[in-house]
Specification:
The structure is a single chain. The chain is mainly β. It is 0% helix and 29% strand. It contains no helices and three strands. It has strands at 2-3, 6-10, 17-22. It has a three-stranded antiparallel sheet with strand order 1-2-3, with no helix packed on it. Strand 2 and strand 3 (17-22) form a beta hairpin.
Amino acid sequence: MRHDLHVRVVDAATGELLRELTIDPTRDYQPTGRPHGPAPKSTKP
Protein backbone atom coordinates (compact mmCIF):
# COMPACT_ATOMS: atom_id res chain seq x y z
CA MET A 1 0.00 0.00 0.00
CA ARG A 2 1.34 3.46 -0.84
CA HIS A 3 0.03 6.83 0.29
CA ASP A 4 2.03 9.88 -0.80
CA LEU A 5 5.62 9.26 0.38
CA HIS A 6 4.67 6.69 3.01
CA VAL A 7 4.84 2.99 2.09
CA ARG A 8 3.56 0.05 4.12
CA VAL A 9 4.46 -3.54 3.23
CA VAL A 10 1.76 -5.89 4.45
CA ASP A 11 1.53 -9.71 4.33
CA ALA A 12 -1.42 -10.42 2.03
CA ALA A 13 -2.43 -13.58 3.90
CA THR A 14 -2.28 -12.32 7.48
CA GLY A 15 -2.46 -8.55 7.18
CA GLU A 16 0.66 -8.30 9.33
CA LEU A 17 2.67 -5.09 8.84
CA LEU A 18 6.12 -6.19 7.65
CA ARG A 19 7.74 -2.83 6.97
CA GLU A 20 6.91 0.85 7.00
CA LEU A 21 8.99 3.28 4.94
CA THR A 22 9.10 6.94 3.97
CA ILE A 23 10.38 7.67 0.47
CA ASP A 24 12.92 10.50 0.17
CA PRO A 25 12.17 12.31 -3.13
CA THR A 26 15.69 13.81 -3.20
CA ARG A 27 17.32 10.35 -3.31
CA ASP A 28 17.87 8.17 -6.39
CA TYR A 29 16.89 4.61 -5.45
CA GLN A 30 17.93 3.05 -8.79
CA PRO A 31 20.91 0.67 -8.66
CA THR A 32 24.20 1.86 -10.16
CA GLY A 33 25.41 -1.59 -11.21
CA ARG A 34 28.33 -1.46 -8.80
CA PRO A 35 28.74 -4.22 -6.19
CA HIS A 36 27.62 -3.42 -2.63
CA GLY A 37 30.13 -2.71 0.11
CA PRO A 38 33.57 -1.13 0.16
CA ALA A 39 35.92 -1.37 -2.82
CA PRO A 40 38.27 -4.35 -2.68
CA LYS A 41 41.81 -3.58 -1.56
CA SER A 42 44.57 -3.98 -4.11
CA THR A 43 46.82 -7.02 -3.60
CA LYS A 44 49.66 -5.68 -5.78
CA PRO A 45 52.98 -5.25 -3.90
